[in-house]
Design a protein that fits this description.
- With 260 residues, this protein is mostly helical.
- The chain is 73% helix and 0% strand.
- The protein is built from eight helices and no strands.
- Helix 1 packs across helix 5.
- It is globular and about 55 Å long.
- The relative contact order is 0.12.
């Protein structure tokens, strides 16, 4: 697939062309991540998350159900990729719990890069050529439109609890996407701001993170899950104390700015 032109892949709006574009961009970001300093690392990771998680969510919601219908071994092939997606979710969740500078971060990051590259190879070398041989150009374009539509409203962060299949992942899309995109906006300012701003925004990001993890533990979010991709974790309550602390920090920061 990597060697085919846009026309061969079904045109600009084909799902294969869109997939290839994302894969090229991911490769660039992974190379940037491996060359990044500790300070730059979080900013690059945030860009990777915003690319990878909506991309995978749209695959699981739109493409894999089609492949399970049209390929005789579609169940086996898509399950393998879902397991890779699940490992990415678990690795990122683990990474976010490790403090910057921790010696445990390097092997987790290395494995994350490895799994992401494996996922791209499996899709481009195995799944998508098979789909291309069985589905018409027009169908590839319709799938591209549907995939792009889902990607634009999909969650942008790791959610290992949520099912990798409908209906659970579809139910999870709206609430988790709203929380994730709020967190993206906060973290973008946090990693590019001053020390004072980071101190204010860090607890707010923490509240959004814990709130999204509380949402993903709702039973309806796990419907349709294959047992091999199930992640067991204790359901957290809503972080009221952290939320109150974040609100107080934000109010104090706003007061200081007003006095200046």
């Amino acid at each position: 697939m990597a060697e085919q032109s846009v026309e061969e892949l079904g045109g600009p709006i084909s799902v294969l062309t869109r997939q290839k574009g994302d894969h090229v961009r991911l490769n660039e970001l992974l190379e940037e991540l491996q060359a990044a300093s500790d300070v730059e690392q979080q900013r690059v990771l945030l860009r990777i998350y915003r690319l990878v998680f909506p991309h995978a969510f749209a695959e699981e919601s739109v493409l894999w159900p089609v492949m399970r219908r049209v390929l005789p071994d579609g169940e086996e092939l898509t399950l393998q990729v879902e397991q890779e997606h699940q490992e990415v979710n678990e690795l990122v969740t683990r990474l976010e719990r490790l403090p910057q500078g921790s010696p445990e971060r390097a092997p987790v990051l290395d494995r994350l890069v490895e799994v992401l590259r494996e996922d791209v190879r499996d899709e481009e070398d195995e799944l998508f050529p098979r789909l291309q041989n069985l589905v018409s150009r027009g169908r590839l374009q319709l799938l591209g439109l549907a995939w792009e539509g889902v990607r634009r409203v999909a969650p942008t962060r790791a959610h290992p609890i949520v099912a990798r299949r409908p209906p659970g992942n579809v139910v999870a899309a709206l609430p988790l996407s709203l929380l994730d995109r709020l967190r993206d906006a906060v973290d973008a300012r946090r990693y590019s701001g001053t020390g004072a701003l980071r101190g204010v925004l860090a607890p707010i990001s923490g509240v959004l993170t814990k709130a999204s993890h509380a949402v993903e533990h709702l039973p309806m979010m796990r419907r349709g899950e294959d047992p091999s991709t199930r992640y067991e974790g204790r359901a957290p309550g809503f972080p009221w104390a952290t939320a109150a602390g974040a609100a107080a920090a934000l109010a104090a920061f706003a007061l200081l700015r007003r006095r200046r």
